[in-house]
Design a protein that fits this description.
With 99 residues, this protein is α+β, with helices and mostly antiparallel strands. Helix content is 33%, strand content 14%. It has a domain of 63 residues. It has three helices and five strands. The strands form two sheets. It has a three-stranded antiparallel sheet. Strands 1-5 form a two-stranded antiparallel sheet. A hairpin with a 6-residue loop joins strand 3 and strand 4. Bound molecules: zinc ion (ZN).
Length: 99
């Protein structure tokens, strides 16, 4: 289905992976351990780390390393268009001004 890359990641891959984590419409990578607190994995050049425990992960989907393409392909779908409209509405106040 999707190709996989293994750590170490390049600086550019780290930047894209962390942007992917906050993209909102894709499910982010989370810690494999069951605990309370922050469990959103953080990409580093040596792989993913959990901000709360010692969990690490050494792979990512290749598609996650180009956030611009992820966004473009999502926003070109019908659902993506609706999502984007909703997002733009949420970013405006009741007078229609962009916040
Ligand atoms: Zn954890």
């Amino acid at each position: 289905m999707d190709n996989i890359i293994k750590a170490p990641f390049t600086k550019d891959q780290v930047k894209n992976l962390n942007e992917f984590q906050s993209i909102g419409f894709m499910h982010p990578f989370t810690c494999g351990n069951d605990h309370s607190g922050d469990n959103l994995l953080v990409a580093t050049e040596n792989g993913w780390v959990c901000p709360t425990c010692t969990y690490t992960q050494d792979w990512a989907y290749t598609s996650m390393t180009n956030v611009e393409i992820v966004k473009e392909s999502f926003f070109s779908t019908d659902f993506g268009k609706i999502y984007k409209e909703g997002q733009e509405k949420r970013n405006r106040n009741n007078n229609g001004e962009i916040l």
